[in-house]
Amino acid sequence: MTATPPDRYAVDRLIRQVAAAAILPRFRNLAEDDIREKKPGDLVTAADEDSERRLTAALPDLLPGSRVVGEEAASRDEGVMAALDGPDPVWVVDPVDGTHNFAHGKDRFAVIVALCQHGAVTAAWIHGPTDGTTVWAAPGQGAWRLDEPEGPRRLAVNPARPLPDMTGSLGYRWRKKVQQAREAERPGLPAKVIRAGCTGWDYADLALGRLDFAQYTRLKPWDHAAGILIHAEAGGYNALTEDGAAYRVTGQVDPRTILLAPDRASWQAMKDLLESL
Q1: Per residue in 73-105, pLDDT tens?
Q2: How many CB atoms lie within 10 A of CB 237?
Q3: How far apart (Å, rounded) are the C-alpha atoms in residues 58 and 216?
Q4: Of 55, 116, 42, 106, nearest in space to 86 by CA
Q5: Which of 2, 45, 100, 128 can bridge 133 by disulfide, Cβ–Cβ 3.0-4.6 Å?
Q6: Helices (DSSP H) in 129-256: which residue ranges?
Q7: Angle 233-216-23 (CA atoms, 0-180°, nearest 5)?
Q8: Dihedral sign, CA of 45, 52, 118, 268?
Q9: Beta-strand pair 42-45/167-169
Q10: Do residues 241 and 271 make contact, with C-beta atoms less than 8 angstroms apart?
Q11: Distance CA 261, CA 265 (A)
């Protein structure tokens, strides 16, 4: 039996409380020993660790019998990810997504929480501590912005349009390929390709209509589980480029690539373009 997720606002309040206590006081205020490398180029800060501790302690209280898999716990012991292959509901947490941005004083970072069970995401939250935005979704219930003064606002991805009118998020290698094609005056290229350095920010921007498409490879559940559901519930189309299958949450990092677009036709057009570069 799949557990019923707790009230969306209860989780949002908890995330905001944790951000206010563990993250924002350290923003642009990190001591030298508050930052270290888990491995070369992969930063973790005292804010990541404090945020994850607080969320790990509090989230199970909102759903008795649930467990937590946090990014930092998984970096210390990959075995904790095995909980995602079990029967219990699991909170998947990225305590500070966009740590590099955070550590360097850039405001594009997020807290990501996904409730998962039986390989599916049953509820998802992405919160931006610096702008106060929270985007939430659940299967069949749509994607919503929760922080609007007038009440929750239902979100929808941008309508499909020609690739030259689209803006999207691609990794460095693909941005370079697009730029080379642009310099060669190839037609049919996207208007703009960027990367926020924070997957949570990108996923929120897709649902908020600030981005049209995005592509990511090597899918870690704390980075992507929440955002993929939010995008789909906002009316977007996403699938793995290797076989067109839907992403499922497992206790492993998925080495494949997810492509997100407004609809199936634009997904195929973007896939064809990238494969031709």
Answers
A1: 999 999 999 999 999 999 999 999 999 999 999
A2: 19
A3: 30
A4: 116
A5: 128
A6: 172-183, 199-208, 221-233
A7: 80
A8: negative
A9: unpaired
A10: yes
A11: 9
Spatial separation of the C-alpha atoms in residues 69 and 202, rounded to whole Å = 22
Mean pLDDT, the chain, whole residue set = 97
Measured CA to CA, the distance from residue 271 to residue 166 in angstroms comes to 14
How many secondary structure helices (H) and strands (E) does the chain include?
8, 14
The pLDDT value recorded for residue 39 is 83
Q: What is the pTM of this model?
A: 0.97
Q: Which residues of the chain have pLDDT under 50?
A: none
> Per residue in 188-217, pLDDT tens?
999 999 999 999 999 999 999 999 999 999
**What pLDDT does 40 receive?**
87
For position 1, what pLDDT does the model report? 87
Whose structure tokens read 């946090």? 70
Report the distance separating Cα 138 and Cα 114, nearest Å. 10
DSSP H or E run through 16: helix 8-18
- What Rg value do the Cα atoms of the chain yield, rounded? 18
For residue 123 the two structure tokens come to 């509820």
Domains, the chain, ordered by start: 8-154 (3.30.540.10), 163-276 (3.40.190.80)
DSSP reduced 3-state for 19: helix
One-letter amino acid at 153 equals R
The pair of structure tokens assigned to 200 is 């949570």
